[in-house]
Specification:
374 residues, alpha/beta, eight-stranded mixed beta sheet, 13 helices, 46% helix
C-alpha cells in the first residue's frame, strides 16, 4: 500500500480546480447563467430538422445537466431523484428506463489517500440502449455513452484528482500516442467495466450484420472529454471509426498530435463544442493554454464555437480601464476594486464552463414546438 500521488503538473492547475467548487456553487446561487449564442449551431438548426441539431442538443442536456443530477441523487442516496433522472434520460432518448445503465468506477473517499499501487482514478458514465428502428428494410442500432465531468465538491476528490493527474502517458502499453493520464484512467476504467464490454460485444455483432447500420455516440462535458479516449479504445476494439461520433463540451485537449496520426479516420467524427471564456478550453487568453502547450496537448476535431458572454467582455474591459488608472495613480481602493473585478471575471469563466452549454439543448428544443423542456 502507498499514498496516491499527483503529478508535478498538478501544482500549476491546482489553484483553478480548488477554486472551482466554491465559485461554481456561488454561480448557481446567484443564477449567473451566461447568455451565449453559437452562429455555427444556429445555422445547423435553421437549416431544418437535422440530425446534428438534435444530437448535439440532446448530448448537451445529458452531459451538462442530467448526468450531474443523476450522480447527485446517487451519492446523496436520494432514490426518488435517481429514478426520476433515469426516467428523464430514457425519455430524452426514446427508450425505457431499464435500457439506461450507470457505470461508477470512481474511488471511494476512504480509498483516496491509501490505495493499491496499480489502482487508478475511476470514471462515471451512462450507457443508453434505445429501441432499434427499421428504415427501408434496414435495421438501425444506436448506442449512447455519456461521461460525467468534475463533480464540484472538495469532499469528493476523485474527479479533481483525475483532472490534475495531467502528465502525458501512453494510452496503453506500446500505444503510439501520449495522452492525459487522468483522462486515460477515467475512460479506461469505464471501458473495462462489464457493462461496457457487453455493449462493445453487441456493437461488434451488429456491425458484422450487413443489414444493420450501427451508430455509437460518445459524449461528455469537462473531464468527460475523456469520451474521445473512450472512442479511441472502441476503435482499437474493432468498432469502425465511421460508426462512432464523439462530442465533447467545454473540454481541453487530452492528447498530443500523435493521436491524429494514430486515429486518422476517427478525427473527422470528433466535435468540440466550446464557449469563449471557458476557463478550461484551448484558446488565447485561457489560463490553461500555456499548460496545454507545455504538456504538448493539442485540440482536434470539428469546432462549434460560441463567443464569450457580453458580461465577461464587459468585466474584462472594466478591469483593463481600472489597471490603466492604477498605473497613473495607484491607491488601495483601486487595488481592492481590481481584485473584486478579477474575482468576478473568474466567477463568470466558471459559470460559462458550468452552465453555458445548456444553450444547445434549449436552442434545439425551441424548434420542437410546445413540448416542455426537461
Amino acid at each position: 500500500m502507498r499514498p496516491k500521488s499527483l503529478s508535478l503538473s498538478s501544482i500549476l492547475i491546482a489553484g483553478i480546480f480548488l477554486f472551482y467548487p466554491a465559485i461554481s456553487s456561488r454561480s448557481q446561487e446567484i443564477g449567473a447563467v451566461p447568455a451565449i449564442q453559437s452562429p455555427e449551431f444556429e445555422a445547423i438548426c435553421r437549416s431544418g430538422p437535422t440530425a446534428d441539431c438534435e444530437t448535439i442538443g440532446k448530448a448537451a442536456h445529458l452531459t451538462t445537466d442530467l448526468i450531474y443530477e443523476l450522480f447527485d441523487g446517487e451519492i446523496t442516496h436520494n432514490r426518488a431523484k435517481y429514478q426520476s433522472i433515469i426516467g428523464a434520460i430514457a425519455q430524452l432518448y426514446g427508450t425505457e428506463p431499464n435500457a439506461v445503465q450507470v457505470v461508477n468506477k470512481r474511488l471511494k473517499l476512504s480509498d483516496f489517500f491509501i490505495v493499491e499501487a496499480d489502482q487508478v482514478f475511476g470514471g462515471y458514465a451512462v450507457f443508453i440502449r434505445p429501441q432499434n428502428s427499421e428504415s427501408q428494410g434496414r435495421q438501425k442500432a444506436k448506442f449512447f455513452i455519456a461521461f460525467k465531468g468534475v463533480y464540484p465538491k472538495l469532499e469528493d476528490p476523485n474527479d479533481i484528482a483525475a483532472a490534475l493527474s495531467a502528465l502525458p502517458e501512453h494510452l496503453y502499453r506500446d500505444a503510439g500516442v501520449l495522452i492525459h493520464r487522468g483522462f486515460r484512467d477515467y475512460a479506461a476504467s469505464v471501458f473495462q467495466d462489464e457493462t461496457s464490454q457487453t455493449a462493445i460485444a453487441d456493437i461488434l455483432r451488429l456491425q458484422a450484420d450487413p443489414q444493420t447500420d450501427v451508430e455509437v455516440l460518445v459524449t461528455g462535458h469537462s473531464l468527460g472529454g475523456c469520451a474521445i479516449l473512450y472512442a479511441a479504445l472502441l476503435v482499437d476494439a474493432g468498432v469502425s471509426p465511421q460508426n462512432i461520433q464523439a462530442i465533447v463540451f467545454g473540454s481541453g485537449p487530452v492528447a498530443t498530435s500523435d493521436f491524429i496520426t494514430q486515429y486518422p479516420d476517427l478525427i473527422p467524427n470528433i466535435t468540440r463544442v466550446e464557449t469563449g471564456g471557458d476557463m478550461l478550453i484551448y484558446e488565447d487568453g485561457s489560463p490553461m493554454k500555456p499548460i496545454y502547450d507545455t504538456l504538448g496537448y493539442v485540440p482536434f476535431g470539428k469546432l462549434i464555437h460560441a463567443p464569450a458572454s457580453d458580461r465577461l467582455n464587459q468585466l474584462k474591459q472594466q478591469l483593463l480601464i481600472l489597471e490603466q488608472r492604477r498605473q497613473t495613480s495607484p491607491s488601495e481602493n483601486l487595488t481592492s476594486d481590481a481584485l473584486n473585478l478579477a474575482r468576478e471575471i473568474l466567477q463568470e469563466r466558471v459559470a460559462i464552463h458550468t452552465h453555458s452549454y445548456r444553450y444547445y439543448y434549449q436552442r434545439y428544443r425551441s424548434g420542437q414546438g410546445d413540448r416542455p423542456l426537461w
